[in-house]
């Protein structure tokens, strides 16, 4: 489906719950979204189902899911499935609605073949940039056409360094010039009033956008992937 049509459907279509994902910390539902002649599978995360956290603002995780999609799009990497923040006509109130990606749940980062592991530098740079505090192995999906997708970004964009990820394959290695060029283009749009800044501001706070721009500038200056930190936990739990 065309991406713009998918976004319109996620925002305006009739959403009906079909089941619940039971292994996460927050309430997450599978739904069917009917729009015109299309029926989409949707992952719906209502803000009222978010467990309060000491370090992230209350009821902010669903909006961070949308912010991750926007960053992925602005970078031109197309890593995050179409995601919207749905305020109206949602079964359990406002929350994120994301296009569900069909995939084999047994095939993920820990079981990837080499051809899929070659895509990891882009994933690593994306997580460094958004400061992803919860990159588990099962958050990397390969769809039936072989495309890589990334999901579950509610614990991202914090102003403090909170990166926790299972993916440290290229730690200490140089970042490719192609990825650095995409990153440089993106962070030039992160000044107040510019396009990426304005697109993200409804979903993350101004100080978090400042921190996003600072992380991007530091990565451009260093030009290599950092090593895992030794002063805090660098891996999520559970790992999958």
Structure write-up:
The protein has 240 residues and is an alpha+beta fold. The chain has a single domain, classed as Transferase(Phosphotransferase), domain 1 (Orthogonal Bundle), CATH 1.10.510. The chain is built from 7 helices and 7 strands. Strands 1-2-3-5-4 form a 5-stranded antiparallel β-sheet. A two-stranded antiparallel sheet has the order 6-7. It starts with a helix and ends in an 18-residue tail after the last helix.
List keywords for this structure.
7 helices, alpha+beta, 240 residues, five-stranded antiparallel beta sheet
Write the topology of this structure:
Blueprint: H1 3-12, E1 14-21, E2 28-35, E3 38-46, H2 61-75, E4 83-86, E5 95-99, H3 114-117, H4 120-130, E6 140-142, E7 148-150, H5 177-187, H6 195-200, H7 206-222
Antiparallel strand pairs: 1-2, 2-3, 3-5, 4-5, 6-7
Helix pairs in contact: 5-7
Mean pLDDT: 97
Low-confidence stretches: none
- Main sheet record: 5 strands, antiparallel
The fraction of residues in strands falls at: 15-25%
**Global structural class:** alpha+beta
Helix tally? 7
Distance between the termini: 29 Å
Rg calc: 17 Å
Write the H/E string, N to C: HEEEHEEHHEEHHH
Taken from the alpha-carbon principal axes, the silhouette is globular
Using the 3D structure, state the CATH architecture. Answer: Orthogonal Bundle
Neighbour order of strands in the largest sheet: 1-2-3-5-4
Identify the CATH class: Mainly Alpha
Helix coverage percent: 25-40%
């Amino acid at each position: 489906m065309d991406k713009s049509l998918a976004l319109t459907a996620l925002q305006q279509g009739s959403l009906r719950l079909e089941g619940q994902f039971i292994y996460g910390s927050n309430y997450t539902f599978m739904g069917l979204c009917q729009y015109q002649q299309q029926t989409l599978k949707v992952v719906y995360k209502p803000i009222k189902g978010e467990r309060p956290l000491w370090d992230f603002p209350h009821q902010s995780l669903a909006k961070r899911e949308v912010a991750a999609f926007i960053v992925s799009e602005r970078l031109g990497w197309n890593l995050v499935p179409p995601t919207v923040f749905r305020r109206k006509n949602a079964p359990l109130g406002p929350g994120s609605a994301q296009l569900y990606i069909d995939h084999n749940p047994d095939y993920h980062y820990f079981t990837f073949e080499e051809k899929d592991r070659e895509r990891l530098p882009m994933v690593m740079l994306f997580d460094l940039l958004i400061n992803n505090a919860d990159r588990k192995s099962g958050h990397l999906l390969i769809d039936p056409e072989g495309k890589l997708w990334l999901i579950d970004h509610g614990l991202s964009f914090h102003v403090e360094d909170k990166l926790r990820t299972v993916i440290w394959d290229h730690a200490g290695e140089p970042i490719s010039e192609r990825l650095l060029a995409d990153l440089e283009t993106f962070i030039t749009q992160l000044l107040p009033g510019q396009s990426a800044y304005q697109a993200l501001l409804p979903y993350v706070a101004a100080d978090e956008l400042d921190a996003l721009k600072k992380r991007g500038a530091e990565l451009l200056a260093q030009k290599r992937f950092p090593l895992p930190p030794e002063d805090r936990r660098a891996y999520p739990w559970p790992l999958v």
